[in-house]
Amino acid sequence: MRELHHFIGGKKVMGTSGRFADAYQPMTGEIISQVPLANSAEVRAAVLNAKAAQPAWAAVNPQRRARVMMKFLELMTRENEALAELLAREHGKTIADAKGDIQRGVEVVEFAAGIPHLMKGEFTDGAGPGIDIYSMRQALGVVAGITPFNFPAMIPMWKFAPAIACGNAFILKPSERDPGVPLRLAELMIEAGLPAGILNVVNGDKESVDALLDDPDIAAIGFVGSTPIAQYIYGRAAATGKRVQCFGGAKNHMVIMPDADMKQAVDGLMGAGYGSAGERCMAISVAVPVGEGTAEELMRHLIPRVESLKIGPSTDSSADFGPLVTGAHLQKVRDYVDIGVTEGAKLCVDGRGFKMQGYENGFYLGGCLFDHVTKDMRIYKEEIFGPVLSVVRAQNYEEALALCNDHEYGNGVAIYTRDGDAARDFTSRVQVGMVGVNVPIPVPLAYHGFGGWKKSIFGDLNQHGPDSIRFYTKTKTVTSRWSSGIKDGASFIMPTMG
């Protein structure tokens, strides 16, 4: 078993708090490392280190900052296989899925490499007699990100790449369940030419999170995780005057219209519902067939597909998905399946008894499929975050739309249909932040914003895309006039440009 470290000031720093968390290899159930849990003093040391380094980095011109990002992209290509294997070993997702995790993060780094263009301000020549007005975007200073276990490569890059490209210093607090990849990303950023102290990684739990939220030198903080914690972080950080961007839970629906291509819809449901063992905030966890005929046809196709899912260790290239992240999370998902049965939903495929031969101590769960789920059931209302799909039958389109709109979460949604009018009406009226039309997981590309609605988000700005540049910068507007355009005498009226 190895002892991990923090990464502060461009180097590995051993923990001093004396507190540790166990990190597991989900496919075997073995403890593979101990993660140091930083105390408030360790967090403060990282912030002070970042604060000292940030002004010089902000003074580096955007083109040179972009070159660091481009060099980092080269290193990510070199390290792709090793990073994917490390990610799969700590998280449990398959290596192929791990590569997808990395790639979606890399795409945001590619976007951030365009920072010379993205940070351009505006200019008005001759706004008044001899007066010019222009705006500029400037870095906030020291910013922080708290990222979840389910995307240990993608979401850290979503956070630190635009923040650092804008000239900020960044404190990353990754999940203590799988911090190996975030630590390695920080090392690669240093190798790419990032000055020491601009990207720091501090492992920890609630104590370190609270220290970040309360630190007076942190100007902004971002979070991805569950809604209760997102709401807590948003409230506590905003109370100290920070800019805050928090993304919470989800309960994503897929509406299947009677005219849908059923094969496409089932393929979409299988990948979106069971990929990565359902541990995705954009996973489809609710299928909504419209009409009894559609529902019956869907179940005829869906049941045998779920029964034939191949679950395996992360190293099995033929596996559809691997184990869940921890034993505690496995038990939580099993408990939800128990609740669904108790509530009266029909469990058509029961994966609770699945055991992986040769990996009996791993955190495996087979695919589970419920039919006749109703909107008053806990398995419908609450986020399960596992390989569990619920089918809620709607009698007509309006009922299906209402299910999506009335749910407290509004992260992602999809509709499968051949009818352009239905699709257009749905995209206009559905109260959800990201919408797919015949696309099961509507995660936008890096140059568009990622963000939900309702209790899936706390804050005004989305992740990546133009919103990320807005979030990590502040705008300064300058109105200038030179002596040749100044008339003698004081003016006591509100200035105008006419």
Task: Provide an overview of this structure.
With 498 residues, the chain is α/β, with parallel strands linked by helices. The protein folds into two domains: 2-248 and 456-478, Aldehyde Dehydrogenase, Chain A, domain 1; 252-437, Aldehyde Dehydrogenase, Chain A, domain 2 (3-Layer(aba) Sandwich), CATH 3.40.309. Helices cover 39% and strands 22% of the residues. The strands form six sheets. The protein has a seven-stranded mixed sheet, with helices on both faces. α1 (40-58) crosses α8 (206-214), α2 packs antiparallel against α4 and α3 packs across α4. The radius of gyration is 25 Å and the shape is globular. The N and C termini lie far apart (73 Å).
Question: What key phrases describe this protein's structure?
Answer:
2 domains, 6-stranded mixed sheet, Aldehyde Dehydrogenase, Chain A, domain 2, 498 residues, Aldehyde Dehydrogenase, Chain A, domain 1, globular, 7-stranded mixed sheet, alpha/beta, 16 helices
